[in-house]
Design a protein that fits this description.
The complex is a heterodimer of chains A (271) and B (273). With 271 residues, chain A is α/β, with parallel strands linked by helices. Chain A contains 10 helices and 9 strands. Chain A has one domain: NAD(P)-binding Rossmann-like Domain (Rossmann fold). In chain A, the strands form 2 sheets. Chain A has a 7-stranded parallel beta sheet with strand order 3-2-1-4-5-6-9, with helices on both faces. In chain A, helix 6 links the parallel strand 4 and strand 5. Chain A is globular. By secondary structure, chain B is α/β, with parallel strands linked by helices. Chain B has a single domain, classed as Rossmann fold. In chain B, 45% of the residues lie in helices and 14% in strands. Chain B has a 7-stranded parallel beta sheet with strand order 3-2-1-4-5-6-7, sandwiched between helices. In chain B, helix 2 crosses helix 9, helix 5 runs parallel beside helix 6 and helix 7 packs across helix 8. The chains are: A alpha/beta (271), B alpha/beta (273). Chains A and B meet through helix 1, helix 2, helix 3, helix 7 and strand 8 of A and helix 1, helix 2, helix 6, helix 9 and strand 7 of B.
């Protein structure tokens, strides 16, 4: 007879801890990515900050190194839409850390433009940045994780992958994020036999420096009350509201979860 | 210009936010299976736990187990039929009377039954809806009537992947419908109570190796369905009850305070195929 898992499992807080794991966050130098990088470090993981802007990477890496003891922080400049750069960066992270257990593929861009006025290059840029990058990163990461027989990949998707935002028009962004949710499902089933778990996190409207700037514009002033009116909680999320979900999805505590999407949106999708 | 405080540098560590130290909780259907594991998980993270079951003897056994594993936790065992409105109200009152508050409630009690719809009696249907869906309404309402006073509370309903899809090969239209109802009720209450500080979310487990399921798998029918189930799970194994603890602890903690009306699926990838 097998042992009772309830009495023989470690405490759930130990299973939520990331102590001794090696993690990376793309787009880790600002906004939600920076918050997730901090949370990984708080939970005990070594963290690699990956982003296009090396100065911003170094600033966040220094911030994390100064705040949390006993962990290692590294940073790499990388354009996650360029296959060669992605492969080289993942190789470098594994070389530095020795292994890679956790990858948060979070980098992305946003743009508002009406579909009838959208140029094809605008469409392609969005799909490349928000969807192709997720594929490139996950594929490079899984090569190592499959060999290890274990890995946790977390994509930053969005509630925009499930609904069409109002009032701003962003058909390319929403389509890319829907693609990310689908990609997580696909990769989860493909890599399930190898111990690699793939899930996505879908934030709702979140207060980031980008959004703060937007709120100062005329159009931002106009849209802001519309957005709030559609959120049951009547507030936007803070980047710190996304940390718990990211850590849960990166921890052993979620090892049976794969191919799913965790929505943290103040209730937006419920309405 | 007012400079906004950076939340990343001014929020407690995520591990502290996962802690349930000083919080009071209840779990219905906690005498066995998933509910028992959830009660243990909450206590592991520092919560006081009321173990609720229709069978007081089972509830007491689990309460004792929790005390052994987590000696600092306050634990009580209570008998309640969660389909009975008066008993549900009394359950919440009893906890609030003893502990002064109720912060976390896992409405987990439920039953399963396999019966083809052509053979399903109206009693079968009604019993399933009453135990698996009505009970969640009754419990959540009674809990929220208390939580609303503190402008804070976390309700976690045990739904199921069966709320999304039709299980195969067993017939269980009433169960699947009830669980879909739990998902919807969770969304409704999440939205309705959002401004009152009460968060309502659900957990959707896939096939889980509870002791009841483990026994079932030893029977002739169990031997027949088990390979069919496994062939439809990308991870090719069933969940252990402990695989569900993390999601519920997260939803019970401050770390999920911006989450409401949402569902966490923990199914080994079942819904992805």
């Amino acid at each position: 007879m097998s042992a009772d898992p309830v009495l023989s499992s470690r405490s759930i807080l130990d299973r939520l801890s990331l102590t001794g794991k090696n993690a990376l966050v793309t787009g880790g130098n600002k906004g939600i990515g920076r918050a997730i990088a901090h949370a990984y470090a708080q939970a005990g993981a070594n963290v690699a900050i990956i982003g296009r802007n090396e100065n911003d990477n170094k600033a966040v890496a220094a911030e994390i190194a100064s705040l949390y003891n006993g962990i290692k922080v590294i940073d790499f400049g990388c354009d996650v839409t360029v296959e060669k750069e992605v492969n080289a960066t993942i190789d470098a992270v594994v070389k530095e850390f020795g292994s890679l257990e956790i990858a948060c593929n979070n980098a992305g861009i946003a743009e508002w433009v009406d579909a009838e006025d959208m140029t094809y290059s605008s469409w392609k840029k969005m799909i490349t940045n928000n969807l192709d990058s997720a594929f490139l990163c996950a594929s490079a990461q899984a090569k190592y994780m499959i060999k290890q027989g274990y890995g946790k990949i977390v994509f930053t998707a969005s509630l925009s992958g499930k609904v069409s935002n109002y009032p701003q028009h962003q058909a390319h962004y929403n389509s890319a994020k829907a693609g990310v949710i689908s990609l997580a499902r696909c990769l989860a089933t493909e890599w399930a036999p190898f111990g690699v778990r793939v899930n996505s996190l879908s934030p709702g409207f979140t207060i980031t420096p980008l959004l703060d700037d937007l709120k100062k514009t005329e159009i931002g002033q106009k849209y802001y009350p519309e957005w709030i009116s559609r959120i049951p909680m009547k507030v936007m999320g803070e980047v710190t509201d996304m940390q718990g979900a990211a850590v849960y999805l990166s921890s052993e505590a979620s090892d049976y979860a794969t191919g799913m999407d965790l929505v943290i949106d103040g209730g937006y999708l419920a309405w | 210009m007012v400079t906004k405080v950076d939340p990343v540098l001014n929020t407690k560590s995520i591990m502290e936010r996962f802690s349930l130290e000083g919080k009071t909780s209840l779990v219905t259907g906690a005498g066995q299976g998933i509910g028992r594991a959830l009660a243990h998980g909450l206590a592991d993270a520092g919560a006081d736990v009321a173990v609720i079951d229709l069978d007081l003897n089972l509830a007491e056994i689990v309460a004792n187990e929790i005390t052994t594993r987590n000696p600092d936790a306050k634990v009580m065992a209570l008998k309640a039929d969660v389909t009975n409105p008066d008993q549900v109200t009394n359950m919440v009152d009893e906890i609030v009377k003893n502990w002064g508050s109720l912060t976390i409630a896992c409405n987990n009690a439920g039953i399963g039954q396999w019966v083809d719809t052509l053979d399903m009696s109206y009693e079968d249907w009604q019993r399933m809806i009453r135990i698996d869906l009505d009970s969640v309404f009754l419990c959540a309402q009674a809990e929220a009537r208390h939580m609303v006073k503190n402008k804070y509370g976390k309700i976690i309903n045990t739904a199921s992947m069966s709320g999304y899809i039709v299980n195969y090969p067993q017939g269980q239209a009433h169960y699947n419908t009830a669980k879909a109802g739990v998902l919807s009720l969770t969304r409704c209450l999440g939205a309705e109570w959002a401004e009152k500080g009460i968060r309502v979310n659900s957990l959707s487990p896939g096939y889980t190796r509870t002791s009841l399921v483990a026994d079932l798998l030893k029977t002739e029918i169990g031997q027949k369905v088990s390979p069919i189930w496994l062939s439809r799970i990308p991870q090719n194994k069933m969940a252990e009850v402990t695989d569900l603890q993390g999601a519920v602890n997260f939803m019970a903690s401050e770390a999920s305070d911006y989450m409401t009306g949402s569902d966490i699926v923990v199914d080994g990838g079942y819904l992805a195929w």
